[in-house]
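Run log, item B.
One chain of 90 residues. Sequence copied directly from the ordering sheet:
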Amino acid sequence: MGDIAEAIRAKLTASLNPTRLVIEDDSHRHAGHGGARPGGESHFNVTVESSAFANLRPLERQRLVYRLLADELAGPVHALSLTLRVPAEA
Protein backbone atom coordinates (compact mmCIF):
# COMPACT_ATOMS: atom_id res chain seq x y z
CA MET A 1 0.00 0.00 0.00
CA GLY A 2 1.33 3.43 -0.94
CA ASP A 3 1.76 6.58 1.11
CA ILE A 4 -1.54 8.13 0.04
CA ALA A 5 -3.53 4.99 0.82
CA GLU A 6 -1.79 4.81 4.20
CA ALA A 7 -2.71 8.44 4.91
CA ILE A 8 -6.33 7.67 4.02
CA ARG A 9 -6.28 4.60 6.27
CA ALA A 10 -4.77 6.54 9.19
CA LYS A 11 -7.25 9.42 8.99
CA LEU A 12 -10.33 7.23 8.63
CA THR A 13 -9.19 4.87 11.38
CA ALA A 14 -8.42 7.68 13.83
CA SER A 15 -11.68 9.56 13.23
CA LEU A 16 -14.21 6.82 12.54
CA ASN A 17 -12.90 3.77 14.43
CA PRO A 18 -14.21 1.49 11.67
CA THR A 19 -15.15 -2.14 12.18
CA ARG A 20 -14.28 -2.66 8.51
CA LEU A 21 -12.09 -0.56 6.24
CA VAL A 22 -11.15 -1.54 2.69
CA ILE A 23 -9.06 0.77 0.52
CA GLU A 24 -8.49 -0.27 -3.09
CA ASP A 25 -6.23 1.66 -5.44
CA ASP A 26 -8.19 1.63 -8.70
CA SER A 27 -5.79 3.93 -10.54
CA HIS A 28 -4.63 1.29 -13.03
CA ARG A 29 -8.11 1.32 -14.58
CA HIS A 30 -7.82 5.05 -15.26
CA ALA A 31 -4.37 5.23 -16.83
CA GLY A 32 -4.30 7.93 -19.48
CA HIS A 33 -7.46 9.61 -18.17
CA GLY A 34 -7.62 13.03 -16.58
CA GLY A 35 -6.25 13.13 -13.05
CA ALA A 36 -4.40 9.82 -13.39
CA ARG A 37 -0.87 9.84 -12.01
CA PRO A 38 1.90 7.68 -13.45
CA GLY A 39 2.61 6.10 -10.06
CA GLY A 40 -1.03 5.40 -9.28
CA GLU A 41 -2.78 6.41 -6.06
CA SER A 42 -5.12 8.83 -7.80
CA HIS A 43 -8.36 6.79 -7.91
CA PHE A 44 -9.64 4.85 -4.90
CA ASN A 45 -12.59 2.66 -3.91
CA VAL A 46 -13.12 2.91 -0.15
CA THR A 47 -15.52 0.91 2.01
CA VAL A 48 -16.02 2.04 5.60
CA GLU A 49 -18.23 0.32 8.15
CA SER A 50 -18.49 2.40 11.31
CA SER A 51 -20.95 3.18 14.08
CA ALA A 52 -19.87 6.83 13.60
CA PHE A 53 -22.31 6.86 10.66
CA ALA A 54 -25.31 6.03 12.86
CA ASN A 55 -28.10 8.58 12.48
CA LEU A 56 -26.41 10.16 9.46
CA ARG A 57 -28.02 10.18 6.04
CA PRO A 58 -25.91 8.90 3.14
CA LEU A 59 -24.99 12.41 1.98
CA GLU A 60 -23.94 13.39 5.52
CA ARG A 61 -21.72 10.30 5.72
CA GLN A 62 -20.12 11.22 2.43
CA ARG A 63 -19.53 14.82 3.48
CA LEU A 64 -17.93 13.63 6.72
CA VAL A 65 -15.44 11.47 4.84
CA TYR A 66 -14.73 14.26 2.34
CA ARG A 67 -13.93 16.61 5.23
CA LEU A 68 -11.59 14.05 6.77
CA LEU A 69 -9.78 13.56 3.46
CA ALA A 70 -9.82 17.18 2.30
CA ASP A 71 -6.03 17.37 1.91
CA GLU A 72 -5.89 14.22 -0.22
CA LEU A 73 -8.83 15.33 -2.36
CA ALA A 74 -7.24 18.75 -2.91
CA GLY A 75 -4.07 17.17 -4.22
CA PRO A 76 -3.14 13.68 -5.25
CA VAL A 77 -6.56 11.97 -5.15
CA HIS A 78 -8.59 12.61 -8.28
CA ALA A 79 -11.52 10.25 -7.65
CA LEU A 80 -12.93 8.57 -4.57
CA SER A 81 -15.72 5.99 -4.70
CA LEU A 82 -17.31 5.46 -1.29
CA THR A 83 -19.38 2.74 0.32
CA LEU A 84 -20.30 3.93 3.82
CA ARG A 85 -22.46 2.01 6.27
CA VAL A 86 -23.03 1.18 9.91
CA PRO A 87 -22.30 -2.40 11.05
CA ALA A 88 -26.02 -3.28 11.10
CA GLU A 89 -26.23 -2.48 7.37
CA ALA A 90 -23.51 -4.94 6.41
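Observations after the first pass:
- Helices lie at 3-16, 58-68, 70-74.
- Residues 29 and 43 are 9 Å apart (CA to CA).
Flagged for discussion on Thursday.
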